[in-house]
Amino acid sequence: MANYTKQIHFYEIPYGSLVAEEIENLIVTGRCISASFILQASMRIQPTCMSIGEAAGIAAAWGLSKGIAANAVKWEAIPAKKRSYVSAGDK
Predict the structure, then answer these.
(1) What's the number of domains the chain is made of?
(2) Of 32, 41, 74, 78, which cross-links 28 as Cys (Cβ 3.0–4.6 Å)?
(3) Which domain holds residue 31?
(4) How far apart are CA 63 and CA 78, in angstroms?
(5) pLDDT in tens, 33-75
(6) Is residue 50 part of a domain?
(7) pTM of the model
């Protein structure tokens, strides 16, 4: 039996696209994040918007608990068990 399913490729939205460098502790979500025109279409769907909002909340809580401004938080520095989504490279 032939396999008719296609391999699904995905991309990650970097945390840096959610924060402003010029304004401390500002996290932007939804359509307002920094992205190219081509990527904007995929970021407007509800599951993606919810994931972006959740990531923003996780980063904000982590920054508050560690005394780090939101735009200085490094997503990779947040322990995987504290994140709801873990990149494929994180184990």
Answers:
(1) 1
(2) 32
(3) 21-82
(4) 9
(5) 878 877 777 777 888 888 888 899 999 999 999 999 999 999 9
(6) yes
(7) 0.75
